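In the design runs reported in the main text, the only information available to the sequence generator was the tokenized backbone. The following block is the verbatim input for one such run; it is reproduced so that readers can re-run the procedure and compare outputs position by position.
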């Protein structure tokens, strides 16, 4: 059985830290907490779980803090989390099993990262990250903001998931760090250019974000996943600015970088739906359902675009085309994912009034496609 050091960097996490540490208390052989300047009860709470609590002067550099935490670990493997992450019970059991069975020949283990769930408990946003690494390999974190762990060697893609369960978030922190770095005269590399554009977009500074996403793509140095994401975010920015043609242009541009993703198929389908081109829209929504989805993708996944959303929009398309039987079939598929969704139930009542008039009330109009957000 391997031994595991859990490493966290924290600051003012009194409301979530115990929950995180409880989820790994009987799994980690060592817990290393690096505090970057807490003024609440964070250190006091951490002290209930470990004596290995250290202070690190915050220098606007997440990689520096994480590398310091890694340098303090003593076990064979290092597991890292953020304070607002948890292992749910099923994933705890999987991690315990992995700990007992992992071959020492494996250098890194990646895990799913569940970022958001819908009201039915289904994951709607996720990606994959390297979570458990062999300490002797000396892997390092890179990047002051949106840092990543540079790894190599034999790896294992596990089905274990870390669940992000944030209660609050300093939405301005990363933007402040980037703008301070720019003010100091720093030249951003491709990765920083991309993530700075993300911060600008998230703050509604769409025109500035467009400039930086464009610069990032022109550099030609980004990871494939980031290139595709930049196209998606450019599409979002232009949509927010009311420029549907450029929204469509960047959705199509994503095809330059890899296999069409469901998110882009839905975007293109939506554009055609707005033009009342229902057959073409239906083609793209069907393509969203048919696109192969790898469970091991490293890019951010919008699972709605590969499940209920295309079915709901196909219901609209086929109703407009006069094929209520197919519309009903797709609405029922959407209902499997969202059994109490108001739009789905509204469509069900409407279509049953047409297909099964003997057991339906007065028909009403089907949910409009242009009222469903993508």
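Verbatim output:
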């Amino acid at each position: 059985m391997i031994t595991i050091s859990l490493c966290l960097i924290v600051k003012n996490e009194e409301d979530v830290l115990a929950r995180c540490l409880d989820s790994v208390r009987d799994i980690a052989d060592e817990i290393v907490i690096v505090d970057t300047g807490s003024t609440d009860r964070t250190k006091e709470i951490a002290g209930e779980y470990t004596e290995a609590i250290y202070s690190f002067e915050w220098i606007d550099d997440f990689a520096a803090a994480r590398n310091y935490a890694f340098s303090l670990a003593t076990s064979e493997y290092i597991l890292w989390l953020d304070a607002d992450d948890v292992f749910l019970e099923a994933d705890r059991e999987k991690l315990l099993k992995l700990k007992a069975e992992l071959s020492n020949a494996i250098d890194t283990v990646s895990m799913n990262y569940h970022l958001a769930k819908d009201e039915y408990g289904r994951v709607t946003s996720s990606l994959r990250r390297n979570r458990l690494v062999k300490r002797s390999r000396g892997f390092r974190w890179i990047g002051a903001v949106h840092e990543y762990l540079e790894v190599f060697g034999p790896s294992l893609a596990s089905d274990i998931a870390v669940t992000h369960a944030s209660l609050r978030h300093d939405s301005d922190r990363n933007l402040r760090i980037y703008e301070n770095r720019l003010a100091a005269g720093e030249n951003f590399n491709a990765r920083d250019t991309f993530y700075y554009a993300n911060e600008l977009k998230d703050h509604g500074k769409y025109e500035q974000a467009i400039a930086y996403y464009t610069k990032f793509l022109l550099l030609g140095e980004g990871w494939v996943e980031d290139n595709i994401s930049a196209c998606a975010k450019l599409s979002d920015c232009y949509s927010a600015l009311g420029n549907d043609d450029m929204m469509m242009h960047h959705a199509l541009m994503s095809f330059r970088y890899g296999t069409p993703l469901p998110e882009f198929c839905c975007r293109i389908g939506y554009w055609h739906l707005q033009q009342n081109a229902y057959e073409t829209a239906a083609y793209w929504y069907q393509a969203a359902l048919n696109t192969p989805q790898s469970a091991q993708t490293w890019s951010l996944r919008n699972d709605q675009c590969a499940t209920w959303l295309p079915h709901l929009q196909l219901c609209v398309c086929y109703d407009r085309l006069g094929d209520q039987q197919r519309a009903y079939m797709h609405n029922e598929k959407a209902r499997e994912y969202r059994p109490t969704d108001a739009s789905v139930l509204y469509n069900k009542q409407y279509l049953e009034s047409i297909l099964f008039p003997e057991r339906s009330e007065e028909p009403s109009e089907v949910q409009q496609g242009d009222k469903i957000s993508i």
